């Protein structure tokens, strides 16, 4: 048709931008230990990026820098264009509550709260009413297959069920970025597949950026991209087996 306009292709943008990042730890009575050595990295919007490495490679330190849990010695981290390394603690806390979610290896559920209460907690900091928080938490728990465990406490659930609660909590506020730190380290192989499929499905559906930190090559296969660290340096940056073009 004459008046038909060409479809605009949305260009991917960097959700996380890391510039000249360096992290040193000062040991008492000794020389500083360099954990990260001039890291430069862009992680794109909607990308599932795996930070891969063995113990001591610097991957957990890098996660802490990207999430604003530690300050770098030098360099900057930007999320959504915001230089989080320059924010004070109150500003950082507010930014994380709005834009960041976490999935932990050890689940990190509050033992005195039910599944619904654990999942609803991030929404409390965003100012949602109790009724709205509960509604969203219930809906998310149903999405992860725990509609029959709403009132259960962590001690009443298996490891796999607890991690599903953790995933629901990480995604309930629809954050821009979810950091997953060895999310299946305490799970069996069958539950690992279920959990990783769930994380990837949510990320694709809501176009969220996932930063997966692991030493497990089987987990890394789920990623669009694998960034490998050795001794605090990026030694390779490759497409994953299940890479999908981000557009």
Overall description:
With 247 residues, this protein is an alpha/beta fold. It has one domain: P-loop containing nucleotide triphosphate hydrolases (Rossmann fold, 3-Layer(aba) Sandwich), CATH 3.40.50.300. The protein is built from seven helices and ten strands. The protein has helices at 59-66, 89-99, 115-124, 130-143, 159-171, 189-206, 217-220, and strands at residues 14-25, 33-44, 48-52, 74-79, 82-83, 100-104, 177-181, 209-214, 225-230, 233-239. The protein has a six-stranded mixed beta sheet with strand order 6-7-8-3-9-10, sandwiched between helices. It has a four-stranded antiparallel beta sheet with strand order 2-1-4-5, with helices on one face. β9 (225-230) and β10 (233-239) form a beta hairpin. α3 runs parallel beside α5, α4 (130-143) packs across α5 (159-171) and α5 packs parallel to α6.
Largest sheet composition: 6 strands, mixed
Class from secondary-structure proportions: alpha/beta
Secondary-structure arrangement, i.e. CATH architecture: 3-Layer(aba) Sandwich
| SSE pattern, N- to C-terminal | EEEHEEHEHHHEHEHEE
Question: Topology of this protein?
Answer:
Blueprint: E1 14-25, E2 33-44, E3 48-52, H1 59-66, E4 74-79, E5 82-83, H2 89-99, E6 100-104, H3 115-124, H4 130-143, H5 159-171, E7 177-181, H6 189-206, E8 209-214, H7 217-220, E9 225-230, E10 233-239
Parallel strand pairs: 3-8, 3-9, 6-7, 7-8
Antiparallel strand pairs: 1-2, 1-4, 4-5, 9-10
Helix pairs in contact: 3-4, 3-5, 4-5, 5-6
Keywords, please?
247 residues, alpha/beta, Rossmann fold, 6-stranded mixed sheet, 4-stranded antiparallel sheet, 32% helix, globular
